[in-house]
Amino acid sequence: MELHRLADLLAEQSAASKPYLEFLRSEALSVGLYVLRVVDVDGQQPRREDEVYVVMSGHARFTAGDDA
Predict the structure, then answer these.
(1) Which long-range contacts (CB under 8 A, 24 or more apart) does 2-8 make?
(2) Phi, psi for residue 30 in degrees, rounded to 5
(3) First and final C-alpha spacing in the chain
(4) Torsion angle defined by CA atoms of residues 36, 40, 41 and 47, in that order, rounded to the nearest 10 degrees
(5) Helix spans in the chain (H)
(6) Is the confidence at residue 43, as pLDDT, over 90?
(7) What percent of the chain has pLDDT over 90?
(8) In sequence order, what E strands does the chain have?
């Protein structure tokens, strides 16, 4: 089991100056940190893999295709 502290991940992401930080990868799964400000729009393109979104604070609206 791996333990990843949010503060450490945020610091690593900030140091890399990239919006997405992948911090765990296996054959069947990858996990990353993607932080958006309130006014930001997620500009990622759809992928073939399943994705999980966790809102750590505030709120979000998720739209999949024409579904809201």
Answers:
(1) 6/56
(2) -135, 150
(3) 35
(4) -20
(5) 6-16
(6) no
(7) 24
(8) 20-25, 30-34
At 7 the three-state DSSP class reads helix
Question: For residue 64, is pLDDT > 90?
Answer: no
Cα–Cα distance for residue pair 30/16, rounded to 1 Å: 18
- Say yes or no to pLDDT of 14 above 80: yes
Tokens of 29: 């799964």
In this predicted model, what pLDDT tens digit does every residue of 18-34 receive, in sequence order?
Answer: 888 999 888 888 889 98
Task: Spell out the residues 6+ positions from residue 40 whose beta carbon is closer than 8 angstroms to its own.
Answer: none
For tokens 């979000």, the residue is 60
What are the tokens at 57? 């604070």
5 token code pair: 């502290």
**Of 41, 49, 40, the residue nearest 22 (C-alpha):** 49
